[in-house]
Hints:
alpha/beta, six-stranded parallel β-sheet, five-stranded mixed barrel, 13 helices, 19 strands
Amino acid sequence: MSTQPLPRAPGAVTTKPRETAMNTRKIYIETYGCQMNLADTELLIGLLKPHGYESTQTVQNADVILLNTCAIREHAEERVLKRLRELMYHKARHPGVRLGLTGCMAQHHRDSLLDKAPFLDLILGPDAYRTLPALLAQGDKDEPLVSVRLDRDETYADITPVRGEGIRAWVTIMRGCDKFCTFCIVPYVRGRERSVPLTALLDQVRVLADQGYKEVVYLGQTVNAYRDGEHDFADLLRQTAGIDGIERIRFTSPHPSDMSEHVIEAMATCAKVAPYLHLPLQSGSNSVLERMERGYTIEHYTALVERLRSAIPELSLSTDIIVGFPSEDEADFQATYDLMAEIRYDSAFMFKYSAREGTKAYKWEETVSEQEKGRRLQAIIALQERISGDVNQQAIGQTVDVLIEGPAKRPAGWLAGKNGQFKTVVFPGNGQQPGSVVPVRVISATAHTLIGEAFR
Ligand code: SAM
Ligand code: SF4
C-alpha cells in the first residue's frame, strides 16, 4: 500500500448533508472486490433506506459517497486510494458531501487511514454497518468518525438489502472465516465465522421468489461450512430447492475441507442446485499447501474432485490459484501447472501472491520476484485459456437450458444468459423475456462464451 499521505481536501468546508427534494438524500456507493462486498453494498443501502436515503448511480447527485472496499490484495487497495484522491477534489467542490470508506480495507487500515486520508468523514468496518445512519446523523466533524468493532454475533439477519434489478439475488448466509490461511487477511477484517439462521434465510428467499428473482446465490467465505446450530449447508440447499419460483441455486466460495458427503448428495439430487462448483485449490504442491495452512492435501483435493465428478457428471468446476507464495520453487509451480492440466477446470481466477500485513505469511521472506510471479501467472493463464477453449468446444452441438438475463453486450438484438454450468450463452433474441429458461443449441464457442443459434 502506498505510504504517501493524502492531503486534506483543499478548501473543504464543514456543513451538514445537503437535503434534496422530498427530504430524501442520495447515496452513491462504489464497490470493490468480491460478491460479498456487492452484497454488503445492497445491505448498506437497505440499512439507510428507512432513514430517508436512496441510492444514486452518479457521484454528482450524491450527498453521501462511500467506497466499499476489499483488502485481499495490495493492488485492490491502491485502486481505492487513487479513487479517494479524485473524490477528495469532488468533496472540496461540493461542501457538505460526506465521504466514507467501508468494508475490509477500512477495517485493515483503520489506524493509518486517519493519517493518510484525514478528509474522510467515515471509516466503517464490515461488522459496524448498523452504526452508519447514526454516524451520518451526527453531521461533519473535524476528524473522521470511525466504527470498526468486530462483532462475533453480527449477521444482519434482520436487514433487508436493497437489490438491483435482475433475475439473480445474492444472499449472504454466513460472515467471517475461522480458517486463517497464512496468506489471507479475511479472518482479520471480517472476523470469526457465524451463520444466519436457516429459517431467516428461507423467509428471505421466499420473498425474493415473490419479487420475481429466479436464481439465488448463497454467499460466504467458506459457504459450505454454514451451520446455524441445527442445520448444515446441505439442509439449506435441500430446503431452498423446495421454494416455488426459484429456478437455480448456486453458492460461492466453498472450501474443499468442508465439502461433506451430505453436501455432495444434496448437489447431486436437487435438480435446482446448479452443476457448478468453485473449488479453490490455491496450489498444486503439498508443501506449499501446508505452509498456506489450507487444511487439505493434493491427494484429498483430487479424490474430492473425482467424487464430485462421479456424483454430478455434468459438473463444471472453477478454482482460485495463487502463484509466487513465499518459498514456492520451480518444482512447486510446475506441480500447480500439471495439476491444472490434469483437472481441466472450466475456468480459474489466478493471482500473484500479495503479502498482507497482519497475516502469518507477511513475516516470511518473499522468495519469488515480481517478475517471476508474473511469468508464472502468464503461464497458467495461457494454459487455462487453452483448457477453457477446449472444454467449451465440447458443448458445440448440445442444447443447453439458458436462464435469460437480458440483452447481450453485442451483437445488438442478441440475448445473454447462463446455462446451469454458469457459462455465458449468447444467442439471437426472439422476444424472450429475462427470467425465462429457454433451450438453446450451441453452434460455436470461445474460451469464455457459448454462442447459440436463433431460437425457434
Ligand atoms: N474462502 C475462499 C477459500 O478459501 O477458498 C476464498 C476467498 S478469498 C476472498 C478469494 C481468493 O483470493 C482466494 O481463494 C485466494 O486465491 C485469493 N487471495 C486471498 N489472499 C490472497 C493474497 N494474499 N494474495 C493473492 N491472492 C489472495
Ligand atoms: Fe481466506 Fe482461507 Fe478463509 Fe478463504 S478459507 S477466506 S482463503 S482464510
